[in-house]
Amino acid sequence: MTPFREIAHGLRFPEGPVALPDGDVLVVEIEAGTLARVKKAGHVEVVAVLGGGPNGVAIGPDGAAYVCNNGGFEWHRGPDGVRPVMQAKDYSGGRIERVDLATGAVNVLYTETRDGPLKGPNDLVFDAHGGFWFTDLGKARPRELDRGGVYYALPDGSFIEEVIQPMLTPNGIGLSPDGGTLYVAETQTARVFAFEIEAPGRVRKDKWPAPYGGRLLAGVGGFRHFDSLAIDSAGNVCVATLIEGGITVVPAVAGKVQFLPLPDRYTTNLCFGGLDMRTAFVTLSMSGRLVAIDWPRPGLGLHWVEPRP
């Protein structure tokens, strides 16, 4: 088992960690419908109540938090904790929200595109131009599963566009160190795809039979599903992995895929922070914990987030 340190416990299905310059870590609690700040000593403070299912978080150019809200899940409770199972009966619609971290004020930026409504926005990443890419995984119902996609939007609410569609449960999303490649992880297929970026909000799509026009970077066997991801300074795509819980480390170029096991079947997300960016903060969602792992190399810094001094 991979060594780790527990930072906080008792969280209600945490996701979307963001390491802040002061040493705190933002997380969402999907089951509780909140955005929270985990202090360095482990104390948890609620920043905002969003409702629905806040899922992924990123800091924008204005210093606000931008949240992918999936609209809400139904939940199953068992001896190992809680896990999502399908669209909530009181599903409130997918949306992108902006949260003022100083006041907790919440504004809804997007609920739809010209191609249709957002169903289950999941994860997002800002680029150097100030726009953001995000995935919409869709929602599952007893006899239906939405086909998801990848979108690009501006943080002032003025522009949103569908870029890649359809995909099967697109989840984690990230950018290469040079900003020229977009990585997308699919949950149910346990695959990572790479798309070359031609301009902000535009990718080059390879011809059929390339899935969705993307290059297949990795696909793993076994009983694993992929969730959200982060990139380290060597360009490795580090993917939180479900069922066989842990982190799958995928080289951006030829190399061996590694797996770091963790004791939670819903290891859902990670981010890098701490001194020298050598700490991976990981959400163990089923058991409600935020933990820290010493990473063998620095993580990649995110646009619009100052590194910790």
Q: Can you give a write-up of this model?
A:
There is one protein chain. This protein is mostly beta strands and 309 residues long. β21 and β22 form a beta hairpin. The mean pLDDT is 96. The radius of gyration is 17 Å and the shape is globular. Strands 20, 21, 22, 23 and 24 form a 5-stranded antiparallel β-sheet that branches. It has a 4-stranded antiparallel β-sheet with strand order 1-31-30-29, with no helix packed on it. Strands 2-3-4-5 form a 4-stranded antiparallel β-sheet, with no helix packed on it. The protein has a domain at 15-225: TolB, C-terminal domain (Neuraminidase, 6 Propeller). Helices cover 0% and strands 53% of the residues.
The radius of gyration is 17 Å
Task: Assign the CATH class of the domain at 15-225.
Answer: Mainly Beta
Question: Averaged pLDDT, please?
Answer: 96
Q: What is the third-level CATH name, the topology of the domain at 15-225?
A: Neuraminidase
Q: What structural keywords apply?
A:
309 residues, 4-stranded antiparallel sheet, Neuraminidase, 5-stranded antiparallel sheet, mainly beta
Quick description:
By secondary structure, this protein is an all-beta fold. It has strands at 5-8, 14-19, 25-29, 34-38, 44-49, 54-59, 65-69, 73-78, 81-87, 95-99, 106-110, 112-113, 116-117, 121-126, 132-136, 140-141, 144-145, 148-153, 160-167, 170-175, 181-186, 191-199, 202-204, 215-219, 224-231, 237-243, 246-250, 258-261, 267-273, 279-284, 289-294.
